[in-house]
Amino acid sequence: MSSVKELVESNSLKSVPSNYVCIKNPEDSIFYETENIPTINFSQLTSSNPNERSKAIQQLGEACRDWGFFLLINHSVSETLMEKVLRACQSFFDLTEKEKREYLGRELFDPIRYGTSFNVTVDKTLLWRDYLKCHVHPHFNAPSKPPGFSETLEEYITKDRELVEELLKGISLSLGLEENYIHKKMNADLGSQLLVINCYPPCPKPELVMGLPAHTDHGLLTLLMQNELEGLQIQHSGKWIPVHPLPNSFLVNTGDHLEILTNGKYKSLVHRAVANTKGTRISVGTAHGPPLDHVVEPLPELVRDDNPPSYQAIKYRDYMKLQQNHELNGKSCLDRIRI
């Protein structure tokens, strides 16, 4: 299976190959630019001023409840490091196909997995996307090429995990729980952190293809950063909204396991990635979840007689397998474990 980058850089590409052309619903092309996407100020969320912090926690809870998404600004990851990571990721995809294929993964839980599309064994239509996936916690894994790549990623994912720990504190407090409740309940010190680096090469007819179709993420929270090219679209109130990130910000979305934990109070976000004609879009996402063998179910504190459990208990590893073995399609994976 050729990578999309290899396909684009071959001199033969004049049109989109038929196996990449996806059938879209007419409503999928309707966009709304007017929505004010929530913005969370990280410095206020971690402020020593109780009033300032309380307000930020309330805003965080509202963003998780009403959107499942927010932009995170004034965080503790330097712009220099973010730019360094994006350059390093571009350098990985600029390796020769032979070098990248050293990291071809066969299995879902292989420590490092380079590939294309989503799961070529189940995808009816191939996606306009190449990827590198690394399980980076509790054990750090990354390619040894290009030089310095692994070290840059390790520095970044450590900072990334610190951000998520603070966000989970705020989310716990927004639910009326003790601030370390979710962290402890999910055994987050040994939790799973999956780094997913996406490469979306330019496409001659981007309206015919899809980078990633509408889907939700597994895990509690996903932190995403990207280069200067936009392509993320989120679904809110049944409408597709293109995301225009603020400089030096993270895009944060809630995952299926936060929806399971909160028994549906906080919903996971349906989102997708589209292609463009301008250049290669690089996005760097980290999905944060419990340890792979941890069983996740609605928190007892959020279940009552008039609000019984809405989801079956499931091992995190099994949920990831469930998602990987089916085509991405909205909330179809979460729907499989609804009660």
Automatic annotation (TrEMBL):
The keyword Oxidoreductase applies. Transmembrane segments: none annotated. GO terms for molecular function: L-ascorbic acid binding; metal ion binding; oxidoreductase activity. Keywords: Cytoplasm, Iron, Metal-binding, Nucleus, Oxidoreductase, Vitamin C. It comes from Psophocarpus tetragonolobus (Winged bean). This is Fe2OG dioxygenase domain-containing protein. Pfam families: 2OG-FeII_Oxy (PF03171), DIOX_N (PF14226). The keyword Iron applies. GO terms for cellular component: cytoplasm; nucleus. It is found in: Cytoplasm; Nucleus. SUPFAM superfamilies: Clavaminate synthase-like (SSF51197). InterPro entries: DIOX_N, IPNS-like_FE2OG_OXY, IPNS-like_sf, Oxoglu/Fe-dep_dioxygenase_dom, Plant_2OG-oxidoreductases. Residues 190-290 form the Fe2OG dioxygenase domain.
